[in-house]
Structures
1.
Amino acid sequence: MTFTDETRERAREIIARYPADRSRSALLPLLHLVQAEEGYVSPAGVAFCAEVLGLNKAQVGAVATFYTMYKRKPTGDFLVSVCTNTMCNVLGGQEVYDTLSEHLGVGHDETTADGTITLEHAECLAACDYGPVMTVNYDFFDGVDASTAVGVVDELRAGGRPMPTRGARLCTLKEMAVQLAGFADERDGAVADGGPGEPTLRGLRLAQQHGVSVPGFDPNTPIRSKAEADKAAAEAKAKAEAAKPAPVEATTAPVKGGDGASAPTGAAGVAEPAKPEAATGSTAPDVKAPDDKSPQVRTAETRQPDASTAVPDAPGTKVPTDGTGTAPAAGDARSAEAAGVAANAPAGDGKPAGDEAGAQERNLTEAKAGTDADGAGPADASETGAQK
């Protein structure tokens, strides 16, 4: 398939949203974009995404097959998803699905003959307090039963657009994919109507009833633009800088003590304030951990410190004993750690996937010997190893 110029222009716009060296992050919205044109992510759509991002098709396909919102075969104009997970199932979700399946003559992930509706099970639609729920192109229909669900799909097949319980006006799957790609819904009145659900409003009403709110929150405060927010932040920073007290200039005049005698002074002639002792509640010495120790060794020494260096009341440590009340000899923790490291070989050898082990070992052997199989010198061996 050849994608339209509009799709290619939108693809460039999507990629431009990301840093130049992070363009592959645009893959998810690009997959929605190709789905908006074809109604599903076809092999041509995978190839298109790979082309514009400089990836291979396997990398794109791995992502497209991971997420259920990317359809791998032609899908109807309206994707009807019925939740049959625990809460909705208890409330009748499975009955709703079974009734729709029989009424439409299709099963899970199947599309009606007229191409209007694709039916699917949904593991969870994250709306347990509205169950049983179903969605049409991800817009919610709450508290449905078998009868109301059949009424919704019949209206869709007749060309109507039933109003979701919550959210904006219903749109087709392709129109929804455009929005998921990051573009506004340009239909006239697309975001009109709709409203929140009662369980959602319940929390807000309880907060209002009991006076629970963020300190200083004004619900009528308009949302500022980024430029306005940056300006306000700069003004606040300047105000804070201006409020700082001016630094005190050093003086050479001696500072008199309480008895009139000169108090000890520092290099600038100013009395040095007494340094308060840290009140940590522990006599453990404040010793910086050596930088050359691995995190594993540091952890082992914390859990089982050597008897010669451990501080009994150091937070998080306890000097172990051998059962007779005798602490282990110094160095036991390090010895145990070294023995554990020696007994556990690394999980992998760090070879790139697909390398042939025999050839790699042969090259390493030749490099160490300073010669190759033909008796070449060290310089020739290096060149041969690089070629291999």
2.
Amino acid sequence: MTGPFRAGDRVQLTGHKGRRNTITLAAGGMFHTHRGTLSHDLLIGAPDGSVVTGSDGQRFLALKPLLTDYVMSMPRGAAIVYPKDAGQIIASADIALGQRVVEAGVGSGALTLWLLRAVGDTGTVHSIERRQEFADVAADNVAGFFEGRPDRWTLTTGDLSEVLDAGDPEVADRVVLDMLAPWETVPAVQRALAPGGVVIAYIATVPQLSRTVEALRDTGAFTEPLSTETMVRGWHVDGLAVRPDHRMVAHTGFLVTARRLADGAEAPRTSRRPAKTFADEDVELWTPGAIGEREKSPKRIRQVARQAAEIAEARRTADDDA
């Protein structure tokens, strides 16, 4: 949202060393550093892009966070889809204004924010999450960014296959899967996706990648799946000192993309030698721990939920005052 800073706004403060802090403005509030304080009142009413000075003389650049900034600093109950993958999902699945998108699971709501922005006011996003505590965090994160819960967004707690099988067929133009065992949902996705629609799965490990691709192939209802990963490397540019950064955002996940064929259609297949595929006895039980994900403790999830709720409430209060 454009315009001057208001109470309830999220503001990104950048100090002289490049350290960033994201705060929620409140009348009379104070931002504390180890060297001094900065009054929120200096920012309220100031234009976006202002530079303010704290009690210790330190200067801060104040900006309204971009969606990338918001996603990276918002409370997390579950691992998020990083911006580099979110952008690739939007492009690879060709998600655009007016489309009907189904998403599972919602996690902390990072990808949901990108999807809602992409479909605009004329599209819809239906997010399905199995865990209620994650759904609660995502709901508050979405409300905190959009200044309330968008009417075009539906959030359902439950199993994707059960939710889709209970509804009408061909209810989605795009289906986005971010879950442990996406191959188990392929029949339900096939039923829910309109002909020509796109399914895209965000997958963490090689065994998951293999099983998902084979499951899509076995149906005969999709085009040949395309498997990719995206890596981002920054560059240091200072005069003649131009070189790649020592660190880069490398593997975060694979993307598998395929399109729904019309009923009864059979796409031309590239001849290839049959290969051994994964069976149930070839892999361990699919749990977050089995693929190396670190489980959040119930205490940590409750803490994240409180943080997300406070941000959303501050935004709602600011809107009511306005």
3.
Amino acid sequence: MPPSPPAVPAVPKNPVTRPAVSTGAVTGKGVPAVEGVAGEGFPSAVSSAGGAAPTASRTDGGWLVLAGMLLVALNLRAAVTSLGALLDEVRVGLALSGTMAGFVTTLPTIAFAGLGAATPWLVRRFSPARLLVLAMLALTVGQVLRVVTGSAVVFLVTSALALAGIAVANILLPMLVKQHFPHRTGLVTGAYTMALTVGTTVAAAAAVPVAHAFGSWRAGLGVWAAMAAVAVLLWLPAALRGRTAARPNGTATRSRVRPGRTRLGWAMAVYFGAQSLSGYAIMGWLAQLFRDSGFRPQDAGLLLAGVTALGVPIALLMPTLAGRLGSLRPLIFALATASSLAYLGLAFAPRGGAVLWVVLLAFGQGAFPLILATIGLRARTADGTVALSAFAQSTGYVIAALGPLLVGILYDASGGWLAPIGFLLAALAVQTGAGMLIARPRYIEDER
């Protein structure tokens, strides 16, 4: 629709009752972003005059942003799970000590916690498109460099570089959902979480066959750099068109949203941390539990892969349900019940009901897409979303880092799985308690 003549102010036919401006979200042109606007060079969903933009431009821009987000999400765990699948080969090839190998497995949570916390500072200075290009470039370069070195130290440093890119992208995606798709938060969060799960599964399943096909573990790790490079190319035009998000006075202002000073912020962080703790513990130890129960190594690996594979449809469904329900309590209780039954089954009948326990575990791990969707649902603005995302994820990954470590300590000390599973049940109780605090609708901006 053409703009109204200057003498006659345009009056929207469908006035929006909620605030249209995201107070902290910054576009690539240094102005506050209107919710749903592609401010980093993508076609806008709303024209600057307040009227509707052309339908084709809005649709094309939305699809382009969504495609870019999905491609980024595909990369968010491939570098981690491919290394896990080839850890023994890497350990032998680089002569890693047991301590060094243990540090490699803990490095992702350390990087996600430390570098994720710095992302809001970066968002106040650079457009999200530029940050995503830099993040994917770091992931690409890090994955390439770590497979061409023969030094264990260089391998660790370059792995940290790759993980730094993942850490920044982890925080940015919920903000981009809020900024570009404010009325489809659950659906879009489910889509990118499903892409993340697919990337996780494919990398875990394909890393060893690729390594065998090329005769080296380096190929099994390095091939995923190509996927990250494609993500760089997709976001690069938007990054080149955008400008750094500098404030008019040349300095960036600090966010007014402080999740660390709110009850909601801490509840989100504890829920994220507890569910991630169980997730990393399952990824690290479930196959060993099944092997100890008498399964062949390949069958134990297939059962572990089943948890991830079944998580793909759950990743799409869970955020959609979260966006439609007034209260999250039914979902939180259902997830907790499924996980509890799975843990009890693994403790007392791991072999007889293995498939059932895998199905229940997969459903219980739906807490991960649920909390990602909740980050967007518990913030009014893109600024609030990135602040809450950074706090919940960085603090949560500190908690999550304890999972595989404590499970291993309890397993070695007790010589069995009752103590480790008891620990996971205790963590689940903490997770459920935190879930009750985030279940009812409210916003982080209101708790400042």
